[in-house]
Task: structure prediction
Amino acid sequence: MSLGYLIKLKILWALNDVQKIYYLIMAAVGVPLNVVTIAILSRGKCGLSKCVTRYLVAMAAADLLVVIIDLILRQIPIVYRDQFLFLLNVRICNIHAILLYAATDCSVWFTVTFTFDRFVAICCQKLKLKYCTEQTAAVVLGTVTVLSCLRNIFWYFLYTSKYWLSNSPWFCRVLSSVSRSVWTIVELMHYILTPFIPFILILLFNALTVRHILVSSTARSRLRGRSSGESPSDPEMENRRKSMIVLFVISGNFILLWVVFMVCSILRRLDYLGYSVSLPMFVPEISFMLQILSCCTNTFIYAVTQRKFREELRNGVKYPLTMVVKLIR
Result:
């Protein structure tokens, strides 16, 4: 056994110890944060349009489901395997897989649809009036949800109902009748659709949005400078700047925290097809940790970028404290 292998193995063991604490903290934080985010945004007092609010609420709801179905019902039982051995006798793993992958797809593709909506709102003024509406947002989100559920039904027929309680490579036992090559192609296509294609679309829409904003800003600055001889504040550009900040922070957060998972998933599946790619054993585990983190960060993003969201969050914290003080008195 080589020294390099031993070092990698020790890193993996240390990471497993970290995960036991990390996942518990993420579960304790992720559920209430997403519930609070949904509650605050649903009140409609954050100064956001109803269209944007629908997308953000849907993203928070999908993240909440991922925290429950993936983190609490998969990752925690895996790292605390000895305490969850009873799951080996629970025959629902293939159903669990459908719900998990469908929730993950919704979380990812809701981010894509939100990015596209903001692209249309900023860059396509004629289409904006028809597309960027509350009704359209509801139709788009509903369609994505239905397609995500339908697309993942095939896992029911590829997995057995028995839990494997491991991330290497699947958390359910695989049907013995499914050949390795067929399984690998199916999984590779799955990870290309989520999250590889969403990565490309988000980068594309953001690049087009940035280009449009830069061109529009230059043109408006020249026009306003010529007409007024000075550089007064521009409300239109200020609104675009705020929309751009929210869009880019959410998109950047998604890309940053999902990139390791995407690379690991695709490289591992290529390895099964005969294209040998060596990855340290601990890298996929880090990718799972970052993926889970991405479902717990949007509340902080809204708090940093949205003043009214901060006010609503502050009021939400103060209200129960005020009630407690009144009861004590």
In short: The chain has a mean pLDDT of 86. The longest strand covers residues 159-163. The beta strands are 159-163, 172-174.
